[in-house]
TrEMBL record:
The keyword Zinc-finger applies. Belongs to the XPA family. InterPro entries: DNA-bd_dom_put_sf (IPR009061), XPA/RAD14 (IPR000465), XPA_C (IPR022656), XPA_sf (IPR037129), Znf_XPA_CS (IPR022652). One of its GO terms (molecular function) is damaged DNA binding. It is found in: Nucleus. Residues 197-247 form the XPA C-terminal domain. Keywords: DNA damage, DNA repair, DNA-binding, Metal-binding, Nucleus, Zinc, Zinc-finger. GO terms for cellular component: nucleotide-excision repair factor 1 complex. One of its GO terms (biological process) is nucleotide-excision repair involved in interstrand cross-link repair. Residues 129-148, 300-314 have a biased composition (Basic and acidic residues). The lineage of its organism: Eukaryota, Fungi, Dikarya, Ascomycota, Saccharomycotina. CDD domains: DBD_Rad14 (cd21077). This is DNA repair protein RAD14.
Amino acid sequence: MERHRQLAENRAHALEKIRLRQQALKGQNQPVPQKELTPEQRELIEKNRQKALERRRIREGMEKGNYRIADQATYAPDAPSGVIEGAKKGDRNHIQERIRPSVKKADYIEYDFSTMQDTYGGFLSDADRKEARESDKTLEQWQEEKQSRPLVEPAPPLDIANAPKCFECGSIELNRNLLQTFGCRVCKSCENKYPEKYSLLTKTECKEDYFLTEPELADETLFKRLVKANPHSGTYSKMQLFLRYQIEEYAFKKWGSAENLDKEWLRREEMRVKRRDKKFNTRLREMRKKMRAEEFTRKLRGERNERHEHHWSRGEPTGEPGMVRRRCKDCGLEIEEIQM
């Protein structure tokens, strides 16, 4: 009973509060005079309205998948509101650029995948690959590009009498590439006129034609060289070019004269032919031994109608170093063996 009485009192107290609140509201239905807004308040309201529209534009662009609209928006939701509101008009663009996302989705959408190539490290366009190649150059690649870059012809010298001149014709219009690389004073016309002196040789040609060794060609104090990329493959070792008359001067000094160099070439050519003939005769002799042994064995097997096993005699020297001759005691077959 006490509980029901307490609930009734609480209900009556709540109804009394509601009645008093309604009476107070009825007395306040009269219109309240509104205060006119100041220009600063109107400007603040307009800024808040623009920010609200910007947020709605970003949200709609993200929902529709149109990242161009989201990327072109200047509003940054992650930035503190006090930073943009308290910034001056001159600093507003700087703050927006600083907080702009690092990934430009607009550029990604504009890519044409039909013109791209799969590099197994992501799809890259031609412009991206060109920019990556230029930025990833090593010091050696930069130096090679600088050397292969066409040289700018300098102005003619003022003192013609003391200017460097061509070895052949005395012209002052020298080939700057040969002058800077090899220290050779020769003009372009004489370079083409005398290819037996001013042509370039590879390292292989220097070894085969002038019999120079690898340590001699590797010594940069002996020979100046022009280093270029290998024309056969970029993974091969770099191509080194030498000036012909400099190689010939050193080779003639090494072998005594041009005639001695020719004699050395003939001697090595004869040795090469002898090695080739010896190798051919050795193979031919082995083939004949094999055929003769098979023929005798086949003939003997046909006569006796049984398998023949040779009983070889002791080896006798044949006169050639390392060779011995053995003879079968039953059929008389002779073979030559190499004694190890």
